[in-house]
Every structure is written in structure tokens, then in C-alpha cells.
Specification:
single chain, 16 helices, alpha+beta, six-stranded antiparallel sheet, seven-stranded mixed sheet, 33 strands
Length: about 625
Amino acid sequence: MEDTSENTRLSNQICLGLVAHVDSGKTTLAESILFQSGRIRTMGRVDHKDAFLDTYELEKSRGITIFSKQAQTNIGEKQVTLLDTPGHADFSAEMERTLQVLDYAVLVISGPDGVQGQVRTLWTLLDRYRIPVFLFVNKMDQPGTDRAKILRGLKEELDERCVDFGSDQDKDLFLENIAVCEDSLLESYLETGEIEEETVRILVRERKLFPCCFGSALKMQGVEEFLGVLDTYMAIPRYPEKFGAKVYKIARDQTGIRLSYMKITGGTLRVKDVLPGQQKDYPDKIWEEKVHQIRIYSGSAFQSVEETGAGSICAIAGLDSTWSGEGIGVEPDAQVPILEPVLSYQVLFPDGEDLHLMLLKLREIEEEVPELHIVWNEQTEEIHVQVMGEVQIEILQNMISERFGVRTKFSSGSIVYKETIKNVVEGVGHYEPLRHYAEVHLLLEPGEPGSGLVFDTDCSEDILSKNWQRLVLTHLEEKVHRGVLIGAPITDMKITLKSGRAHVKHTEGGDFRQSVYRAVRQGLMQAHSVLLEPFYAFHLTIPDKMVGRAMTDLERRFAVFEGPALEDGQAILTGRAPVSALDGYQTEVTAYTGGLGQMICTLDGYGPCHNEEEIIAAAG
């Protein structure tokens, strides 16, 4: 239930995000909402390259959303910040960062396509961040769209508490569908035959009910009714009086001014306020910086304000040390995105370019697009970039050319491998040159798949004092530790400090850094290491007469799959396969089915590598 104590206050600001699978008509729905609510005079179109929210040149030319955008509008009496997020799988990390500031989400689904692979990934993320969801099923003007069938699909594939909120329904049936979402509500409904509006609002906010509306954003059908549903069933949020803010994006305007996009999650922010925060890679180092300007953006235009309150989304100029995902004030840091890059490319610059200078410039872009991992290879003096997919490479190429006037090329992509261990081992690190001393004992244990690295301490303070233990954990967290098979980053492991020693006179902080690194290395040398590679979850739809060919192809590509499920002359195969093995297969499917086949791939974590020996031998 809501906290109604004196330390909180209601905010009339609601942050509403639009999320969808690519080509569902999400940006078109954003245009329709802004038009219907009187924010824009004419509706732009993605295919006409004049959408209000697609402000970046490459977005206009490709017809896709790449960066999250915002617009201010009113829905009824509520002030709403509408956030349009990227739908393309390559930019899902940008979308995931934006999710963390939403009060509500609108999941846009294409009526003719139904629930596709990316929609399932989005649904999992919306559940992870506990965001209440309204669904808008778009493109219902297209032939063959059956409302009842689509609703059945939503209930089966997403959640059985998806309920049709169209106004053309029988009232009793509508209320009954809502009542069955909550056991206690069903009893009171059977007694009274009524359900209060406020009760429905609470169900939506607590993710016990998911209202669904149907229409066509392009033809403006059902949009006004959908706005009515949003107005009625979005609850006004309550925020603490103490100041808090969550940074979700770093960007630069056309003049190069660095902007920190944040949601105010408590209190009030004013120009000239001094904000404190932690350095991203050095949590023990604090920064303090002054707010020079507060901008409220709508499309590409902004309004400068002197102060802004809880619930608002703003861009702050004057902060140089913020980072995407940082919590300021009483707000904790955001969860680490679960979507991460799996392909690596070498960046090739023209002869004569200063690589160290270009590395600094690329780090500037990495700040704005954190899912681009820029890696400097010390031995070969090469810059590599890790990305989610090939479309990101095109974006990066464009950004480097536009911003720095440098034409780049990229090597052919390779896979980002990781390493883990199968057994429990202890690693000991000892560092004792003249007038230095530190010793560390670490326990390395295999973790659950997808758990990443977990660091802990189980060491008595009589053996090693609290501040040295904290320093050991800092050194474990500060660097990418590499495995012993091919030097890939380690993951899915718990590392626990069990014991250690320091000298009263001769131990300095840097001594523990050396002993920690050595202990990790020594432990990995003894362990049974396993090479991991990224996997795709795939959803392949092909004409049923070609199913034999597809199954043979997938087996040859080390896929594990279910099926085939047959419906309306189509065969559907779902499963998972290594990213490396599916390289180029989507193009092959299009070719052998004459364009009738469709393959949708979404990242599905890491698993044991199918050709480990070959990869280790190639890495030398």
C-alpha cells in the first residue's frame, strides 16, 4: 500500500514509457498520443521522417528509435512525461536503463504479429523492475486481426490477468474478468456486484491486472479511448520529502554541453544546488558539483527552469562525474542491466590518427552509450568495441564521423567469450618486496548461470582489520579479472575473502591490490575452468513443407529446440543456439523460404561453449 506518512507527498507528475518489439508502431502511437492530448498540431510519421520524437538524423533515415526521447504532455489533469524507448534488440540496453525511471509502461504489440521473441524479453524486464503495464494492441485495421484470438494469445504467452478494457463490452463480464485477478476481490464482487475505480487502480499499480486496449495508432482508432483508460487507472505517485534522483542517461547537446538526464525521486532540485555522488569505478571517492542549468526537454526543444520537483524528468548541465545508473541523495544506484554486448570488433582508424587521443574520444561516447564497451588491448595497441549487434556498429561509425570528423572502419565481428569454474578452490596471493607486505586467501566457488561475480568476506577482524577487508573487496571489484583458458573475463563465480595478513609498519593499500590479483590468478590456475559463449533464444516461423530442412540446419548449428508447432500452414520452432553458430542464418532463412520465413533472435545469456577446444587452440 502507499506510504501516507508525513514524510511523503503526492506528485502530479507521471513518467510513462512506451516499449515494444521493433516495427510495432510505438513511435506512431507516441505521435497519436501527443496529437490527441493537444501537444502537437500535426502528426508526424516515421516513414515520412518527421516524427516529433525521432530527433537524431540516423533515426530518421533508418526509421527506428535509437535513443530514448521524452515529451511533456497532459493526460486529463495529470502532467505526463512520455518516454519513447528503442524497440530494436541492438538498443535494448538503452531501453532497459530507461525502464528504471518509469511509473507506468505501455507495451505496444503489433496485432498481426502477436507476441514475438523481443516482447517476451520486454515482459521479463518489466517484471524484473516491477513496472505496472498497460497494453495497446496496434495495427488492428490490418486484415486478419482477430481481437479475441489476440487476447487469448496475450493471456497464454504473457499473463492470464491481461483484461480487455474496450468500452464496447458487457459491463458484468468486464467486472467479472477484473474480479478473478484477485481472490479477495472476487468474494466482495460476488456479494456486491460492483468494483470501485480506486480498487482497479491499486490492482494495476501492484501488477495484479494488465489493462489491454485495441486500435490503430496510424488511423487514430482507439487512441482517445486508450487515453481515457490511462487517465482513469494511473495512480498519482507519492514521493519522499528528502532529495533523491536517478541518472538514467548521459548525452551531449549540439554545442557539446554534457547533460545528465535524471528523474527526481524525492524533494526538489534547484539551480546552483551542489550535488554529491560516488565515482563510478572508485566507490570510495566522492564528487561534488554544482547544477548550472535544469532543462525540461520535449522532443528536440527544451525549457530552462529554476527548480523542479519529485516525479519530473530533467536534463542537468554542470555535472561532469555522473554516470548512467547512478543514484544521488537518498536514491540507491540502479540495478545493473542484464542485457550485455556479445560481439567484439576492432576499430580501424586512418593512418596517422593518434590512437590514445581517439581512445579518450571513444570513452566520451561510451559514457552516453554504456552498452558499447570500449576495450584497449595493451599488448597489440588496438581499440576494440563490444556491441549487441551490427546496427550498433553503424551508429558508432556515424557518431565518430559526425562528432570528431574521423572516418572509421571495423574488423569483422568476433564473439565475446567468458570463463567460469566448475569446482571450489582456494587462491593465495603473497606480496613481499622490500618494505612492503600483504597476504590474501580467497575462496573461489562456481555460481549460478547468469549470476555474474559476487564478492563477500568471511574473515575475522582479529585476523584482518575491517578497513583492510574493505580494501580487498574494492580491489576485487575494480578490475576485469581474466580467466586462464583464453584470457576472457570471468563470470558466474563467488569469491570470498577467508583470511589475510598485513604488517603494522610495512603494508600500504597498493600491496593488497597486488596480493588480491595474485590470489585470483593462483586460484584460477588450480581450478577446472570452463569456456562460456553467448546464446540466442530463437523463434523460427517457416512454411510447414520446409520444416525438415530447418530442423537439419538447426541441428547442424548446435541448436536445442522444441517443436515443430504447426498452425495455418506454418511451422514454428523455438529453442536456443550459440550466437556464433546462428551467424548469417536469418539471411539464409529469407533466401530458402522466398521471404516467407521469419527468424527472431533474442539474447539468452551464456552457456558452455560448443567448440571449446577449437577456440582455446585458436587463441594460442
